[in-house]
Amino acid sequence: MAERQQYAGSVSEKDLHVVAAAVTSRAPFLLTLDRPLLRQVNAIGLSLLALTLGDFIKHQLPLHVDYPSLGH
Asked: Which of 21, 30, 38, 49 has its CA 20 to 30 A from that of 59?
């Protein structure tokens, strides 16, 4: 509960649990189709980057060390 409140006012109430879980798990990315959430997360300077799935596939996946072995 305390983790959620940390982001109250910066992130929509409905998304507090999502952001708290992502930060607590030390996820490097938060993938979402919710554009307002994406903007909110990126605006508050968290330790993770919010991206759409398409942006992740285009810009982050090719940087992964195992990407060439995925057959692409």
From this structure: 21
Evaluate whether 40 touches 17 at the Cβ level (below 8 Å). no
Q: Taking CA 45 as the corner, what is the angle to CA 39 and CA 48, rounded to the nearest 5 degrees?
A: 80
Q: How far apart are CA 13 and CA 15, in angstroms?
A: 5
Contacts of 20 (CB under 8 A, 6+ apart): 3, 4, 6, 7
What are the mean pLDDT values of the chain's consecutive 10-residue runs (72 residues total)? 82 95 97 97 96 95 81 56
Contact predicate 63/70, CB 8 Å: no
Residue spans of the domains in the chain: they are 2-70
